[in-house]
Amino acid sequence: MNDRIRQLRKALGLSQQEFAARIGRKQSAVSYLEKNGSTATEQNIKAICSQFSASETWLRTGSGGMFVPGEGRKKELLEAFGQFAPSLQDYLVKSARELLEAQRGMSADGEGLPLK
């Protein structure tokens, strides 16, 4: 798992210090986690997977993809949403609901022809 933590950090383009700050740890803790033979706690594993949308299966075993599909986009959207003023958040929610309603009316191929 130690090598996979290092691979993840490098894939994200983060230093140990930046990675540590994002998961609420110190740089020395990340250095320890990346050291062969060290053990990652459940708390550290959960923090890493949650913060970076990493696949817990991949982190633990090496099988599957490094990231949970689609989770990064959701997190990015939520982070952006949180930066808007409340009035704009209301507008975005209303617009999203309208888009969902329009999507429901599209044909199965998504070409925009309403289903009848």
From TrEMBL:
Residues 5-59 form the HTH cro/C1-type domain. GO terms for molecular function: DNA binding. It holds the Pfam family HTH_3. This is Helix-turn-helix domain-containing protein. It comes from Bittarella massiliensis. The lineage of its organism: Bacteria, Bacillati, Bacillota, Clostridia, Eubacteriales.
